[in-house]
Amino acid sequence: MTETNFIAKNEDSWKSLEAFNRRVVKGGIRRLQLDDVKEFARLFRLTSHHLAYVKTHFPTSHILPYLNKVLGVTHNHFYVRESRAISDVGRYFSRTFPRAVRETWRYWFFATALFVLGTIFAGVFVAADLSRLHDFLPPGWGYGFSADEVPDLGDGSVPWEYSLMAAVITTNNIVVTFNAIAGGLLAGLGTVYILIYNGLVVGGLFGFFHSAGADMIVAYALVLPHGVIELMAIFLAGGCGLMLAKGLLLPGEFTRKHALVAMCKKVAELLPGIIIMLVIAGIIEGYFTPLPIEPWLKIVFAALTGLGLYVYLGRVGRVPRKEISI
User: Fold this and answer.
1) Is 200 left (phi over 0), alpha (psi -120 to 50) or beta?
2) Is residue 85 exposed (0-12), middle (13-18) or buried (19+ Cβ within 10 Å)?
3) Is residue 160 classed as helix, strand or coil in its secondary structure?
4) Crossing angle for the helix pair 216-249 and 295-315, nearest 10 degrees?
5) Cα atoms in the Cβ-side hemisphere of radius 13 Å centred on 98
6) Alpha carbon 226 to chain centroid, angstroms
7) Close Cβ partners of 142 (under 8 Å, ≥ 6 residues apart)
8) Which residues have C-beta within 8 Å of that of residue 240, sequence separation ≥ 6?
9) pLDDT for residue 322
10) Contact 157, 241 (CB under 8 A)
11) What is the Cα Rg of the chain in Å?
């Protein structure tokens, strides 16, 4: 059989398979009737045989790329699971994210240590000399703070436009998070800088408040309600940056490219959860933290938030021992 005759004889079958592909793209394979599915499968098998025949008898034929393309699309319809957005999201937050957090604990634990190191250093340094507070703060931050008077933190409430501040805070935190992750591509130096610098800012402020005689209950009430989730998200982001740095600098038995790709996949597992945590923290900071309620109630809320994080990240998605096959 000549190539022209072969194409003329089977072209209608290929066009029918293309038509099925278009139907599935529009409505999904589940919309097909049983007889349609059978016909779809038959055309898939038939066209696969035609492709093998063309490769054998007409290896330079112009029809070869066309058949490869049609069969590739059809293969995805049969063998690639259709996305189920709601169940996939539920599975991510009930299994994938908390498991990824536990699997990467060494990285975000080290990120936490860098932050705490900066916090302790600045706290001790400022507590010993209150005039050095501005050495650790961004320009314009400590305006009005004086070593000669007790800082007035009010009653723990902050008058502002809640929805606007929630949006601004969330956006800022997400930018910091992405910078912490991207800093890993600078051999980890960018990530280390962001973690230590933010620790210095927090430590400097609280060292100043403590030694200047401010009401520390109010000070903690202004930070902890949202800070528990926010800081955990930043620590996770820092861990992601350190993972990228490890893949870049210490690939081990893998090539540098493959090690970096593997770390990027793990970062991708963590990133959606980190962003959601920052959104939640921004909402708390924008709506709950400024409320004119007793400061100790905010601290209780923060404690409950921390307990909830521990249970969620530490326990959710664990496989019971009896289910693990050895």
Assistant:
1) alpha
2) exposed
3) coil
4) 30
5) 18
6) 18
7) 133, 134, 205, 208
8) 104, 107, 180, 181, 184, 266, 267, 270, 271, 274
9) 44
10) no
11) 29
Tokens of 311: 């249970």
Q: How far is CA 46 from the centre of its chain?
A: 44
Cα–Cα distance for residue pair 129/124, rounded to 1 Å: 9
Reduce the DSSP state of residue 259 to 3 states and report it: helix
Q: Are 162 and 290 in contact (CB under 8 A)?
A: yes
Which residue has 């699997």 as its token pair? 103
The ranges assigned to domains in the chain are 3-79, 92-318
Structural contact between residues 266 and 181, judged by C-beta atoms closer than 8 angstroms: no
User: Do 292 and 157 meet the contact criterion of CB atoms below 8 Å apart?
Assistant: yes
The amino acid at 92:
Y
Q: Report d(CA 180, CA 231) in Å as an integer.
A: 12
Profile the chain (326 residues) by mean pLDDT over runs of 10 residues.
87 91 79 84 91 88 88 80 63 91 96 96 91 79 60 62 61 83 93 94 89 87 91 96 94 87 92 93 87 92 96 81 40
For residue 133, the 8-state DSSP code is: G
Predicted pLDDT at 215: 85
Which residue carries 């703070």 as its tokens? 145
Q: Which of 109, 113, 244 lies closest to 187 in space, CA to CA?
A: 244
For the beta carbon of residue 314, count every other beta carbon within 10 angstroms: 13
What is the phi/psi pair of residue 26, to 5°?
A: -75, -45
pTM of the model: 0.70
